[in-house]
Amino acid sequence: MELTYLGHACVLLKGEKTVLIDPFVPGGNVPKDPDIVAVTHGHADHMGATVSLNRPTVAINELAKYLIAKGVPAEAMNYGGTIGIDGVRFRMVPAVHSSWIEEGGIGCNGGGCAGFVIGMEDKEIYHAGDTALFSDMKLIGELYHPDIALLPIGGRFTMDPADAMIAARYIGAPLVIPIHYNTWPVIAQDPGPFKTALERTTDIRVSILAPGETITV
Ligand code: NI
Ligand code: MN
Q1: Is the pLDDT assigned to residue 105 strictly greater than 90?
Q2: What's the total number of domains in the chain?
Q3: Residue 25 is part of which domain span?
Q4: Which of 96, 144, 171, 202 is the most buried (most CB within 10 A)?
Q5: How far is the CA of 76 from the centre of ligand 2 (A)?
Q6: What pLDDT score was predicted for residue 30?
Q7: Full 3-state SS string of the chain
Q8: Cα 157 to averaged position of ligand 1 atoms, centre (Å)
Q9: What is the CATH number of the domain that holds 62?
Q10: Distance 153 CA to ligand 1 centre (A)
């Protein structure tokens, strides 16, 4: 499977199917024809092109209802739930964050923020969404044994690198990819010391991907 970090929290998985997570790419283009879209929450820096892509989309119940009202073939789910679409398994896990859908200066409650553990081919990929550190990340590790954890490190709205180091240990995925940083000055972070410190103290490897970079996993 190929994993492409498109920037911010946007990640494309290309295996038997193409799965696009949080289709917001600052100053860039979102892939047009993913088989499935997964949106962690309603904030604009995650919703991005979700409505205009108009693909089968997995989202938390309230956000899915909004998308369905917009004509998007969305599949509603909630924390602890699992659905399969075209042979790809989506488990929705909690994220400690808020959610709000904004449209033309008016907003509505997005329900909540989620993370996903996505099972495709023989890999389990955990995208944490926007989240604070929480100790039940241990449970995500115990239950789903993710191969890769995509963790926000930008701080201010999510975990910072120090918290993400603890998260990485809780989750135990052998590969961690930092996301949700350096998009704007308010979430500026240097991922270098995070990688160095985590690799020095654990068996976990950290891949720092530039926006647009693809790795085979
Ligand atoms: Ni957010
Ligand atoms: Mn965000």
Answers
A1: no
A2: 1
A3: 2-216
A4: 171
A5: 21
A6: 94
A7: CEEEEEECCEEEEECCCEEEECCCCCCCCCCCCCCEEECCCCCHHHHCCHHHHCCCEEEEHHHHHHHHHCCCCEEEECCCCEEEECCEEEEEEECCCCCEEEECCEEEECCCCEEEEEEECCEEEEECCCCCCCCCHHHHHHHHCCCEEEEECCCCCCCCHHHHHHHHHHHCCCEEEEECCCCCHHHCCCHHHHHHHHHHHCCCEECCCCCCEEEEC
A8: 7
A9: 3.60.15.10
A10: 13
